[in-house]
Write a structure and sequence with these properties.
- The chain has no helices and eight strands.
- By secondary structure, it is mainly beta.
- The protein has one domain: Immunoglobulin-like (Sandwich).
- The strands form two sheets. The protein has a five-stranded mixed beta sheet with strand order 2-8-7-4-5, with no helix packed on it. A three-stranded antiparallel beta sheet has the order 1-3-6, with no helix packed on it.
- A hairpin with a 2-residue loop joins strand 7 and strand 8.
- It is elongated, with a radius of gyration of 13 Å.
Length: about 90
Amino acid sequence: MQPLAQITSPEHDGRVKGPDVTITWSAPPAMCQEISIDGGPYDEVSPDDRSYAAEGLADGVHTVTVRVERGHGLLEASSTFYVDIPA
């Protein structure tokens, strides 16, 4: 069975305080990693990192997708969460 990529924070369907959110994930060793927020362009993340600082997210629902490229395949994980910006 192929190891999976999984977003560990923010929790799927969870609420987090914003506008700055740290996104973390677990994944097997990677050659290349990328992250996309709300269907935007993918940003490259170091193959050794498992976190990304998303800055300036608006109040509301957001979806993040992480792609992890390995020598023999591509793993992908997505999570949707709600950002709550305190008044």
